[in-house]
Amino acid sequence: MMRSTPIQLAQPFTTLPEALRHKGDPSRWARMTRPGQPMHSFLEGAFFDDARNLWLSDVPYGRVFCIDQDVNWRVEHQIAGEPHSMRITPDGRRIAVDYQHGLTELTGRSDFTVLSTGLEGQPFLGLSDMCYGPDGTLWFTDSGRSSLSDPTGRVYCQSPGGALRLVLDCVPYSNGICVSPDGAWVYVAATRANQVWRFAARLPDMGAPMVGTFLHLSGGLGPDGLATNNRGWLAVAQAQAGRAYVFDALGDPISEVRLPEGLWTTSVTFHPDNDQLLYIIDAQHGGVFTCELSD
User: Fold this and answer.
1) 160-192 burial, b if ≥16 CB within 10 A, otherwise e?
2) Helical (H) or strand (E) element with 90
3) Nearest CA to 222 among 199, 234, 239?
4) Could you give the CA distance from residue 268 to residue 192 in angstroms, rounded to a whole number?
5) CATH level 2 (architecture), domain 32-233
6) Quick one: which H or E segment has residue 29?
7) At 28, is the secondary structure helix, strand, or coil?
8) Distance between CA 265 and CA 262 in Å, rounded?
9) How far apart are CA 33 and CA 109, in angstroms?
10) Exposed / middle / buried, residue 277 (Cβ in 10 Å: 0-12, 13-18, 19+)
11) Percent of the chain with pLDDT over 90
12) C-alpha angle 58/61/65, rounded to 5°?
């Protein structure tokens, strides 16, 4: 029997400033995902850099925000694209997964280079999220518009040497992705199945890895962004439910974190100096929330 899960309330940290809220016509991506609705932003892809700045991607308007330690927002990049997530490599490159363009490198405020549009004869469907493993392997998801009625979402990995490999092609909307701190396991959000899948990061020489359902959730749309900390805890942003869940390495629940406002929970990340401090992103209101998790 599953033990009861403590419920915690997240606290407001910061909100997208009014001056940075889009006020014009919705973009192509906004019209596709929220037809008939205005969209000031859609924040995704939270992560901290080595200087403890918090980064967020604004998918529909091609922006990447940096929030410094004084909680000042600035637009670091604004491209003609749809970046879902970005990471900074150890050598300072800014690699992003872009729904429109594919795997890209952001090379200036408005400049970018397309690194890959997919494998030969198999273009990307529309990239969704990314992470780096401890060994430098890049893992990323390619959801397109896949779902239970079309379970063709993909997972790719790219070795430190640049070799691209298709890992999975059967996910009902492959979304958030992260790697366990020891590098042994890869977690993937299968959003439209309301599940988190898990497989070994050490892949077989050929073919797909064996995959299992690590978590089966309910409510909302399903899991979106994922994050792990040094304890092996897994945080899950439950899309359209206004909450995040945290589980230990065995899948036992640690906390259910509810937002005081907003339902479009898209992304989670742990603070690098405090692995019990969780940051949660709400795209509905452009808000960032925090919660100090209990043991």
Assistant:
1) eeeeeeebbbebbbbbbbbbbbeeebbbbbbbb
2) none
3) 239
4) 19
5) 6 Propeller (2.120)
6) helix 28-33
7) helix
8) 7
9) 26
10) middle
11) 93
12) 40
42: which 2 tokens? 């859609």
Q: Which residue has the tokens 């690699």?
A: 95
- Would you state the structure tokens that stand for residue 252, as one six-digit string? 């036992």
pLDDT tens string 39-93: 999 999 999 999 999 999 999 999 999 999 999 999 999 999 999 999 999 999 9
d(CA 214, CA 177): 13
Query: Is there a contact between 134 and 158 (Cβ–Cβ < 8 Å)?
Result: no
pTM of the predicted model, to two decimals?
A: 0.96
Q: Hey, what are 37's tokens? A: 């609705």
Which residues, in sequence order, are bridge partners of residue 43? 58
3-class secondary-structure state, position 22: coil
CB atoms within 10 A of CB 207: 8
CA distance 106 to 109: 8
What's the CA gap between 190 and 201, in Å, rounded?
17
Read off the pLDDT band of 36 (50, 70, 90).
confident
Residue 278 reports pLDDT greater than 70 = yes
Phi (first) and psi of residue 97, to 5 degrees: -100, 125
Q: What is the DSSP letter of 100?
A: T
Q: Which residue has the tokens 């872009």?
A: 98
- Locate the domains of the chain by residue range: 32-233
